[in-house]
Design goal:
Number of domains: 2
Number of helices: 12
Largest sheet: 8 strands, mixed
CATH topology of the largest domain: 2-enoyl-CoA Hydratase, Chain A, domain 1
Distance between the termini: 41 Å
Radius of gyration: 34 Å
Number of strands: 11
Strand content: 5-15%
Helix content: 40-55%
CATH class of the largest domain: Alpha Beta
Shape: extended
CATH architecture of the largest domain: Alpha-Beta Complex
CATH superfamily of the largest domain: 2-enoyl-CoA Hydratase, Chain A, domain 1
Structural class: alpha/beta
Oligomer: single chain
Length: about 350
C-alpha cells in the first residue's frame, strides 16, 4: 500500500490547520487588524463551506492514496563469487592436530611443573596487579616455566607496558611461552612479543600493531537537548578530551605526539622481542590482524599449532619430558575501559561510553 503518500497528505493537512490557527490568533490579537477582522467576518459563512469542502476533498485523497498499490522496486543483490575450496589444507591441519593429540597422552612419572596462566579480555590498569602477583608467585614457586594462554584484543597503554615489564623480568629467571588461542591483537601481541616463543592457532587473530585514541565530541548533542555545563578548572587544558567540547589545535597536536610516542615504543618492543629490524616491523604496523599462518610467514610468531604445541615448546626450553601442568587463572577485574583513552587495542573491541 502506498502509505507514504497518505502520510504526507495528512502532514500537509495538519500543517495547514496549524498555520490557519496561528493566522487567526494573530489576526484577533492585533488591534491594527480590526478592519480586516470585520471584513473577514462578513465572509465567514462562505469560508466555512469552502473549508468543509476542502476537508472532504483531503479526506477522499487520503483514502484513495491508502488504497493505491505501487510495486516496490526490486533491489539487485550482487552475488559474490566464492573462491574454489582447497580441502587439502584442512586435511593437513587435521592430521597435524590428531598427531598432537596422540602425543599429548604421556604416561609415567612427572619430572617437573609447568604453570599455565590465562590472560584474557581487555587489559586495563586494574589487571596489572593480579597478573604481576601471579607471575611473581610462579617465579618463586616450583614451576620451571610458564605458558601464557592469551585471548585478548589488547588494552590501555599503561596496563600493557607494565605487564610487559613483568614478563621481561620473569624471563630473566624462567622461560615463558605465549599461546594465542583466539585473540592476540594489539596490546596482547605487544606482551606476547617479548616471550621466548609465540604459538598461535591457524584461525587466531594476531598482530594489529598500532595505537588508537578516540575523542567523542558530544557538544552538539548536549546543545540540542538543552544540557548546560558549568566548568570550574584550574587551567586552560584541564578538560582537554572532555566530550562537552572539541579539541583545540594545540591539544590535538599533543595527543597526536602521545599516540606516535606509544606507537614507536610498540614497534621498538616487537623488534627487540622478535629480533627483527624496526623497518621490518613498521611494514606490518598498519593495525591489521593476521591469521596464525599469515603471522608465521611474517615472522611475527614461531609456530602454528594448538595448546600441546605450546607445551612442546616449553618442554624444549626447560628440558622437561613429562611435566605436570598447573593451571592458574588470572583474577580478572572485569574492567570496562575506565578512563585511559590511549590504547593498544583492536578498534572493533572498543566501547565508547558517554
Amino acid at each position: 500500500m502506498f502509505k507514504n503518500l497518505s502520510y504526507h497528505l495528512i502532514c500537509i493537512f495538519v500543517d495547514f490547520m496549524k498555520v490557519r490557527s496561528i493566522y487567526h490568533a494573530v489576526l484577533h490579537q492585533n488591534p491594527s487588524f480590526k478592519k480586516i477582522i470585520k471584513c473577514h467576518d462578513r465572509y465567514s459563512d462562505g469560508d466555512k463551506m469552502k473549508k468543509k469542502k476542502m476537508i472532504g476533498i483531503l479526506v477522499l485523497l487520503v483514502f484513495l492514496a491508502a488504497c493505491i498499490e505501487i510495486p516496490e522496486k526490486e533491489e539487485t543483490v550482487k552475488e559474490e563469487t566464492a573462491p574454489p575450496p582447497d580441502y587439502s589444507i584442512y586435511e593437513e591441519e587435521y592430521q597435524r592436530v590428531m598427531n598432537e593429540i596422540e602425543k599429548s597422552f604421556l604416561e609415567g612419572e612427572k619430572d617437573g611443573e609447568i604453570a599455565v596462566l590465562r590472560i584474557y579480555g581487555i587489559l586495563d590498569v586494574e589487571d596489572v596487579l593480579p597478573i604481576t602477583k601471579k607471575l611473581r608467585e610462579i617465579e618463586e614457586g616450583d614451576a620451571e616455566g610458564v605458558i601464557l594462554w592469551i585471548d585478548s584484543p589488547g588494552g590501555s597503554v599503561a596496563a600493557v607496558t607494565q605487564i610487559t615489564y613483568e614478563i621481561l623480568r620473569f624471563k630473566e629467571k624462567k622461560p615463558i611461552v605465549a599461546y594465542i588461542g583466539g585473540y592476540g591483537a594489539s596490546g596482547a601481541y605487544y606482551i606476547s612479543s617479548v616471550c621466548n616463543k609465540i604459538i598461535a592457532r591457524d584461525d587466531a587473530d594476531v598482530g594489529s600493531i598500532g595505537v588508537i585514541y578516540v575523542h567523542v565530541d558530544a557538544s552538539e548533542y548536549y546543545r540540542q537537548y538543552g544540557f548546560e555545563f558549568d566548568i570550574i578548572k584550574t587551567g586552560e587544558h584541564k578538560d582537554a578530551g572532555a566530550d562537552w567540547r572539541s579539541l583545540t589545535d594545540e591539544e590535538r597536536e599533543w595527543i597526536k605526539n602521545s599516540v606516535y610516542d606509544a606507537f614507536y615504543r610498540f614497534v621498538f618492543t616487537v623488534a627487540k622481542g622478535r629480533n627483527l629490524s624496526y623497518d621490518y616491523i613498521i611494514n606490518y604496523a598498519d593495525g591489521l590482524t593476521w591469521s596464525g599462518k599469515e603471522a608465521l610467514n611474517a615472522k611475527l610468531i614461531d609456530a602454528v599449532g594448538n595448546f600441546d604445541t605450546a607445551i612442546d615448546e616449553i618442554k624444549n626450553l626447560t628440558g622437561l619430558s613429562n611435566p605436570e601442568l598447573v593451571f592458574i587463572e588470572e583474577e580478572s577485574s572485569e574492567t570496562s575501559e575506565g578512563w585511559d583513552a590511549l590504547r593498544y587495542q583492536l578498534s572493533s573491541s572498543l566501547i565508547i561510553d558517554n
